[in-house]
Each structure stands twice: as structure tokens, then as C-alpha cells.
Amino acid sequence: MAAVIDTRVIQTAIGSFVIGTDRLRRVESAFIYDLEGGVSGDDQSSLKMLPAFIDLPTGREEGDALALDFGGTNVRARLYHLEKGIATILGEAARPLRETDRENNVCYDYTTAETKPEELFDFIAGIVGEAVGGNNRKSYSLGWTFSFPARQDRLDHAELIVWAKEIAVPGVEGQDVVRLLREALDRRDLKNITVKAVINDTIATLIAAAYSDDKVTAATIYGTGHNTGCREMYVGENRPAQLINLESGGFSKLMQTACDAEVDARSDRPGTQLLEKMVSGRYLGELFTNVVASAVRGDRDEVPADLEDRLSFTARDMSQLLSAETVPQQFNVLAEKLAPVMGDRFSLGRAEIAALKGLAEAISRRSARLVAATLSAIVKHNSKAGEIQPQTIAFDGSVYANMPGVAPAVRAALDELLGEDGKKIELRSLMEGSGFGAAIAAIM
Ligand code: BGC
């Protein structure tokens, strides 16, 4: 049977994802430009650079605190006990925002445009209540990691600017999410819970990492979404330093490939979160799917129009493909999505498998290099007054932790951009920092 996947289309796409050193340096410079613009309040900057109204912890914070983590696919609440730098979990509850059964029927979904804000917040409050075992007597301080762009004027107040990661619940943007949660907690008779702090996940990870490492200067979330937070460097007079959520996923001074433009156009909010759409787990699979769909479309007549929706490769599929060592294993990963869609015409030979693996490598490598360029920019920007100091950048997120080749590619690109100074930068993986950081913030 004739192959129906046109490998030339894939090779062309692979070429378009290559970013050489010169282009990477241009990304780095453009990012520095936007960092400087963000500091001086220039509205040409694509970085929101949101002050977090909190600084790094001392490492001596102790006590009990509730942490609520609401960032995209899952909602999780944990009751922590912190003592002498050690955290114990006393209670926990977690549930995804959307659940489907085995036949892929939706059981519930709190992410859609049909969801009412009260429904979403009642769901979240229910999880918080579960983590304290329904106890509505004892007082608890709650730290909330809210992983979306939010404008703050104090630590316990956050106005959602815009949803990200394809959450579309209307009526929340522009609102104080702490008030919405407060009302939901009250509806559940959980008046004993006080929301003390609301922070972005980059800030939570930064705080969690700094709790035991005083060299941490920045934290990057590199998973479903992407963003970096860091400590403010240029503090004006009479004002303490604070942490800044850069909202770097919104960085837009980038060259899009045709594939990026199509993925962006199909997204809920075209034109926004352009860096995030090139690097984060939520979109890596879409980039891959987009290329595969156009390669299959090489043979037009019999191809279903909704091919892309039906293929829907995920970042997880890409990780599996990249970690599959033998050709039969790689075949299995690809066939699972391709066979049902291509039906009788399905065929997948060695050449196609190699091309598709190359595509996954190219997309993930570009992602890693772009993230590295923004980190190098942050390090350079923050050291512009002098020498680059030895420092740690903390990482959390499934792409960095699980996608084969990504962490080494970030390291290599950082060294490529920083030269000898690259040795001064330690990259540290930190899992679950975002919940822990919120607990510390509540105690702070
Ligand atoms: C959000 C950020 C968040 C990042 C990682 C992005 O979509 O805009 O606020 O930090 O995802 O979760």
C-alpha cells in the first residue's frame, strides 16, 4: 500500500523549527528589551511583569497552613505542617477540572464557556473542605497558587487579567478571585478558612526553592503552561524588593512558523501567549498534530476534514515516542492515534516513523532553546550592573521533568548563550513546589 504520510512535508517542518545560535541570540536580546521595557512601564513590552507583593522566605517559617493549587488541569488542596524546614502533609484532596469516562464521555467539565463562576469556585471550595476533613471550627490560613495572569495590589487580592491554558469560564476575568473563592467557602460553611496569600505558580516555586536554597533567583514553570518569576532587581527608593511574575509565556517578539500561526489561529485566544504556544506542554502536541495532519493531507481526497481534532497528539505522546527505544515501540505510540483516523489507508513504515520522531525532537528542542534564551536574558538583565553571580534557577513542570532531551537542551542552550558564565547557573528541578510555596506564603 502506498504511504499516505508525506515525509517531505515533515522534513520541511523540521527545518522550520531549527533555531541556530544567531537567531537564539536575537530572541534573547528581544526578551531583554521587553524586560527593560517592563521595568520602565513601557507598554510596548509584551511582558506583564506583575508584582507579587511578597519577597523570598527566610527558611525559618513554621506552622500549619493550607495550600490550594489551581493551575490548569488539576485542583489540589493540602494541609501542611512546617517545622524546622521539614514539611509534613496532614490532609489532602485533589480532582481534575474535567473528567471523562473510558469511552471518552465527559462526566463533568469546569473549564468551558458554559460553566458558571459559582460552579467552578464551589468545586474548588469543596476540595479545600475535603483537605481539612470538613472541619469548620479550627482556623486555617490558606495560601493559594493561582497559575494565571492576575493583577495584585496586595497579597490577598488578585484580579484575573485573562484566562490561559484554554480555560474559558466567563465572568471571572476582571474579578477578584479571592472574593469568588471566599464566597464559595462561605457557601460551604468554611468561614474558618482565611485566604492569606494568592500567588502565581512561578512565585510559589520560587518561594519553595528559596526555602532551602539562598541562591535561587528565578523559577520557571515548564509544563502544561509556561512562565518565569524572579526577584525584582531594580528597586526604587523607600520600597522593599519583591518577587515579579513575568508572565513570560506572553512574550511575543518571536518569529512564528506556518505551523505556529495555525496553532495560534485555532486556539481560544489567537494572538496571545505566543511563547507559551511554542514551548508549553499544552501546545507541543498541537504543533506536532498540525504537521502530521498536513503530511497526511498529502493525499487529499479521502482525508477527513476534522483530521486534526481526531488525531490530537499530546505532549505525553511525544514523550512516549521520544523515549521508545525500538522501532516497534515507536510504531505502537504513533499507530494508536494514526490507525483509527486513517482507517484502511493506514500504513506506517520505517521512514515515516523516523521522520515523525525527528519532528518530535525538533519541536521539543526548539521549545527548550526558546525557554533557555529567556532565562539567559533574565540572568543578563539582572546582572547588568556587574558580574553574573552564581545562582540557581528552579524548574517545575512535566515538559522539563519528563520530555526526553528537554532538560539537557535547556542546559546546552544556556551555556551556548552565556559561555563560561553558564557554569555559574545551576538548574534545579523541584516537583510540587507550587503547593508547598503557597503554604509558606500563607505563613509568611
Ligand atoms: C499562565 C501563568 C502560569 C503559567 C504556568 C500560564 O498559562 O499565564 O500565569 O504561571 O501558565 O502555569
Gist?
This protein has 444 residues and is an alpha/beta fold. The chain has helices at 7-16, 21-39, 117-131, 177-187, 201-210, 258-266, 274-279, 281-296, 307-311, 315-323, 327-342, 350-382, 398-402, 406-418, 433-443; strands at residues 50-51, 63-70, 74-83, 86-96, 98-100, 106-109, 140-146, 150-154, 157-160, 193-199, 216-222, 226-231, 243-245, 391-396, 425-429.
Q: Could you explain how this protein is built, in words?
A:
- The strands form four sheets. The chain has a six-stranded mixed β-sheet with strand order 1-13-12-11-14-15, with helices on both faces. Strands 4-3-2-7-10 form a five-stranded mixed β-sheet. A two-stranded antiparallel sheet has the order 5-6.
- It is an alpha/beta fold.
- The mean pLDDT is 93.
- The protein is 42% helix and 20% strand.
- Strand 8 (150-154) and strand 9 form a beta hairpin.
- Beta-D-glucopyranose is lined by residues 71, 147-149, 164-165, 200-202, 221, 225-227, 247, 249, 276.
